[in-house]
UniProtKB/TrEMBL annotation:
Superkingdom classification of source: Eukaryota
Pfam families from the UniProt entry: NMT, NMT_C
Record EC number: 2.3.1.97
Species this chain originates from: Peronospora farinosa
Record-given protein name: Glycylpeptide N-tetradecanoyltransferase
InterPro entries: Acyl_CoA_acyltransferase, NMT, NMT_C, NMT_N
Catalyzed reactions per annotation: N-terminal glycyl-[protein] + tetradecanoyl-CoA = N-tetradecanoylglycyl-[protein] + CoA + H(+)
Organism taxonomic ancestry: Eukaryota, Sar, Stramenopiles, Oomycota, Peronosporomycetes
C-alpha cells in the first residue's frame, strides 16, 4: 500500500470503524498496524455494501487459486462454525472506570479495585525475553506442534511467523522463554496492539488495548507465562488486555482476573463444510 492510500485508509477507518453500543469508544487502527494486517463507511454500512466488498475480495483470491477462507464477524450469519467470547483484564482500572469501559467492582471502592488489579513490576519466568528474528525457526516449530491439537488452525511457515510475530513497536509484542543451559526456546507468548478512540471525553483521547495472540506454554504454566505477558503489556502503557476463550486460554482467564465481556466473535468458513465446534477447539486468532 503506497503512503497516500495508507493515509486515506487510516483516516477512513478512524471516522467509520466499529464503535461500542454507546458510541463512546471506536477502534482506531494505527498506520503501522494497517501495514502489518493488510471497511465500509458507517453511513453506507446498512446499504449492503459489505457483501459487495467481500465478493470482490473473493474474486481476487480466486484468481490466485485460493478457494477456501476463514473469517470472523461480530454478528450472526448463516452459519457460524464457532462462537468465542472476549474476556478483559484491567491494566489501568482507574482510566477504564473513568471512561466507562468497565465499572467499579461490586462492594469495592475505587482504591480497592485498583489494588485488586495490581501486577508485579518484574516478570517471574527465568529466560523470559523479547522474541528476536533469530528465534523464528524455533517459534515456528513450537507453534506447528501446539496447533495440531485444535480442530481449526493455521499451518504456520517460518515466513508467516517472521511477519506476524517478530516484534514491531506499537503493533505486536512477542516474548520467548529460553532455557539458559541449552539455549532452546521452550515457550512463547504474544499480543498485538489495537487502540480505540474515546469519543467525547475531555481527559482521555485513546484507550490502549492489547489482544492476546498466540501463546505456547511448555516449561511453565500458561498462567505464569501470561502473567509475564500482562506485566509487559502494562509496561507498554496499555490499559486493558483482551483475550478470546480460544485454544487453552480458558485455563488462565479466571486466575489472572479476566472478566467476561459482552463481545462475542463468530467464526465462519467460506466454501468448506465443517461441524460446529466449541471455542476451545479453535486455534486461530484473526486480527
Amino acid at each position: 500500500m503506497n503512503p497516500l492510500d495508507l493515509t486515506e485508509v487510516y483516516n477512513f477507518l478512524a471516522m467509520n470503524y466499529v464503535e461500542n453500543e454507546a458510541s463512546t469508544i471506536r477502534l482506531a487502527y494505527s498506520m503501522d498496524f494497517l501495514q502489518w494486517d493488510s471497511y465500509t463507511s458507517k453511513r453506507l454500512r446498512d446499504r449492503r455494501l459489505t457483501p459487495v466488498l467481500i465478493k470482490e475480495i473473493t474474486r481476487r483470491i480466486n484468481l490466485s487459486n485460493v478457494w477456501q477462507a476463514v473469517y470472523t464477524a461480530g454478528v450472526v450469519l448463516p452459519i457460524p462454525l464457532a462462537e468465542c467470547r472476549y474476556f478483559h483484564r484491567s491494566l489501568n482500572p482507574k482510566k477504564l472506570i473513568q471512561v466507562g469501559f468497565s465499572p467499579i467492582l461490586p462492594q469495592k471502592t475505587l482504591a480497592q479495585t485498583i489494588k485488586m488489579f495490581n501486577l508485579p513490576t518484574r516478570t517471574l519466568t527465568t529466560g523470559f525475553r523479547p522474541m528476536e528474528k533469530t528465534d523464528v525457526p524455533q517459534v515456528t516449530k513450537l507453534l506447528q506442534e501446539y496447533l495440531t491439537k485444535f480442530h481449526l488452525a493455521i499451518e504456520f511457515s517460518e515466513e508467516d511467523v517472521a511477519h506476524w510475530m517478530v516484534p514491531r513497536v506499537g503493533v505486536v509484542n512477542a516474548y520467548v522463554v529460553e532455557n539458559p543451559d541449552t539455549q532452546q526456546v521452550t515457550d512463547v507468548c504474544s499480543f498485538y496492539h489495537l487502540p480505540s478512540t474515546i469519543i467525547g471525553d475531555d481527559k482521555y483521547k485513546k484507550l490502549n488495548a492489547a489482544y492476546s495472540f498466540y501463546n505456547v506454554a511448555k516449561s511453565v504454566s500458561l498462567t505464569q507465562l501470561m502473567q509475564d505477558a500482562l506485566i509487559m503489556a502494562k509496561k507498554e502503557h496499555l490499559d486493558v488486555f483482551n483475550a478470546l476463550d480460544v485454544m487453552d486460554n480458558i485455563e488462565m482467564l479466571q486466575s489472572l482476573k479476566f472478566g467476561p465481556g459482552s463481545g462475542v466473535l463468530q467464526y465462519y468458513l467460506y466454501n468448506w463444510r465443517c461441524p460446529r465446534m466449541s471455542s476451545d477447539r479453535v486455534g486461530i486468532v484473526l486480527c
